[in-house]
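Listing S7. Sequence submitted for prediction.
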Amino acid sequence: MQVYLVGGAVRDELLQRPITERDYVVVGATPEQMLALGYSQVGKDFPVFLHPKTKEEYALARTERKQGQGYGGFICDFSPSITLEQDLYRRDLTVNAIAKDEQGNLIDPYGGQQDIANRVLRHVSEAFSEDPLRVLRVARFGARYHYLRFSIAPETQQLMAKMVANQELATLTKERVWMEIEKSLSDGQIDVFSNILHELGALTLIMPMLTYWNQKHARQLASAIQSLDDTLLNYKLIQFSLWLAPSSLDALQGIEQQLKIPNKYAQSARDYCQHQSLLSHNQVTTQTALAMFNRLDIWRRPERFELLCQVAKADKQINNQVIDTLKRAAQAALAVAPQSIIEQGFKGAEIKHQLALAREEAIALALK
């Protein structure tokens, strides 16, 4: 039984990037042996085990044979006779097919180190085309390492384009597509990710509303993302909202169900799409501010307005003074206490009417 560090941890160590997680491959072992050593099994299609102390993933070396279409449909062989080289051969890119043994020696049968030195993302074998998710993964890696001047090998790009033309991406589940998008948002490179997929003709296949995508929007989005603090709680939400900002509101209706996007992302994108024209004006009136606050329901969900302001702050097309003015007006309106209306003796539906008038007056004073 031999254990090797594999994949992203080895790649990022060679690139001198922070290592966020470590995955291991185990050669020459059976599931029974792993369980006897105290590992707990988590994989169903192929045996993946969690270390009893570190909880890091240890997978038995395996080969894969395609049967069927799409991301699934693989038959795995994880017998103890599978070699490390066979396991590495099934991986997507050469830079991800490097292993490191317990003595620190690198095993690199497919030239991953040379491709790292040359800043090239290259597929390991023609088996790459059996998994359409790899089109999105390579686009994500191309975006993540864009700052290091990585490029996709021409032969790999041709293979990806062929997979797109053959409509292989249609076999992917929406959940798997969203996972790749969200990872690219985490990397802060959704603009480069989009450019790569756009060149392949794949962008509107995964996000149908992005028909407007062009280099001008890519540059504007990149500029906005560069100004963001990547430790922000809403870092991914802000990028996502700016990404979809040029969409029509109709195009964004129901995307949480259609594309299996989390509700908070869909809501934020729609909020910004609906209100960015008001934010673009240099003057805010009492009526337009109150209408915005009501649509956003800041009375019960002030966080929606706060997120909208964060998106607008990142958008270079928006005047920050407008945002500050709206924030001041919202603060004044929120300070109007419903209890103060009740204490004046109003009852029933009149309370709501008087509360609206008081909020309108507070906004008007704040805008002076």
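Caption to Listing S7: primary sequence and predicted structure tokens for the chain studied. Residues 349-367 form the longest helix (19 residues). The longest strand covers residues 2-6.
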